[in-house]
Predict the structure.
Amino acid sequence: MKTIIDMNHQMVKVASDFDNFTRNLEASLIRLDSATMQKIGTEPAAFEVHLKQMGGEEDLILFDMQNHGQLLTLVDAPKKAKQYVIGNPLIAVQMTQHDIRAALYAPLRLLVYEAADQSVYVEYDLPSSLFGQFGNAEVTKVAESLDLKLVNLIAKVDQ
């Protein structure tokens, strides 16, 4: 079965330079390590408590970061571009308990890059449009809160 969905893609120009913005973003998000993730299978209650304590800006956690700009050294000069995988397993569960397909988009991805004119942009797909496709009011409600969390995170980091 094939479904075509409308996507709301966000492209936000930030005032900060690339290095300051990415440094502030990385400093504001707590990194989820593999040792913590392993607790979910053996100590689910401890895992949940630990996640609640982790917090991070807007209650978001950094799962991973890929330096895509550095990859370009394979074909050209490096550029400034990083992809961030962010979210919160507790927020993901709020959605996936209602529709497991929400796991396809959790955690979220942000791309921060410097354009040729040295402007810095953050791009991402709006969570409410990603998760809204499932037509589940409970999932969409949580996704809409993620929309706001991303807007707030970008604004707070861009200082």
Notes: The beta strands are 9-14, 30-31, 61-67, 81-87, 108-114, 120-125. The domain at 9-157 is CATH 3.30.310.70 (TATA-Binding Protein). The chain has a mean pLDDT of 91. The two ends are 45 Å apart (CA to CA).
